[in-house]
Design brief:
Layout: H1 2-21, H2 28-41, H3 44-59, H4 66-78, H5 82-90, H6 98-111, H7 114-126, E1 138-139, H8 140-150, H9 154-169, E2 173-174, H10 178-183, H11 192-202
Parallel strand pairs: 1-2
């Protein structure tokens, strides 16, 4: 099943790259789709493509959406490019979404900034608990990674377990994985898949991508 999906993602990415090579202007949603595909492929090659597309967009003065940047951050983390992930994350305006919250935790984990990580979780659990203030939501999967990281440091483990309990009591833990959070699309938005399928049908006669970003 995964090999079939990988082929589908690869084909979709080739279509997007050919659009780029033919100077078809990317919209904000197109960048989201491109970065999401790169994230799903999760390879050094797809990371390079994502990085190139992002840098080209920034040079042109285009504004990338928070969602597109989240996919770029997640891909960088999956490729152990922590410094790149930190750089991209630092440029996200209003990083207050559930995806940003959990990506920030993963950044702390992979950067080994454990005390800052515990402080971040503490502030989320013990901060303003007014029902009128939007609370940070954490993925159970991500919190499990935190526990695994601090399990050999008794003081941090004890503090984490205390915070973990508070987060559960205040309803700030979701069973959705980070991948599910990243890929969630509100129902009222148009299907990117439908748009992509239309592009693929109309461009079946494309020449080989020998001058595409894949060759860089």
């Amino acid at each position: 099943t995964w090999s079939w999906l990988k082929m589908s993602f690869t084909g979709a990415l080739e279509v997007l790259i050919e659009m780029k090579n033919q100077n078809v202007k990317f919209t904000k949603d197109t960048y989201v789709l491109a970065f999401a595909i790169c994230y799903k492929l999760n390879s050094p090659e797809s990371f390079k493509i994502c990085t190139t597309l992002r840098e080209e967009a920034l040079l042109k003065g285009e504004i990338l959406s928070r969602r597109a940047c989240c996919f770029a951050v997640a891909l960088a983390l999956n490729q152990n490019e922590v410094a790149k992930a930190v750089s991209i994350f630092s440029q996200i305006m209003n990083p207050e979404s559930i995806a940003c919250t959990n990506l920030n935790v993963i950044i702390h984990i992979q950067s080994n900034t454990l005390e800052n990580l515990i402080e971040t979780l503490t502030n989320a659990a013990e901060g303003n608990l007014s029902k009128f203030v939007k609370r940070c939501m954490f993925s159970e999967e991500v919190l499990a990674k935190v526990r695994e990281k601090v399990k050999d440091v008794p003081a941090l483990l004890a503090k984490f377990d205390e915070i973990y309990g508070k987060l559960h009591v205040s309803g700030q833990v979701t069973n959705y994985s980070l991948d599910a959070v990243l890929c969630y699309t509100p129902r009222d938005r148009k299907s990117h898949t439908l748009l992509l399928n239309k592009r693929m049908v109309s461009r079946r006669t494309f020449r080989p991508l020998n001058q595409s970003l894949l060759a860089e």
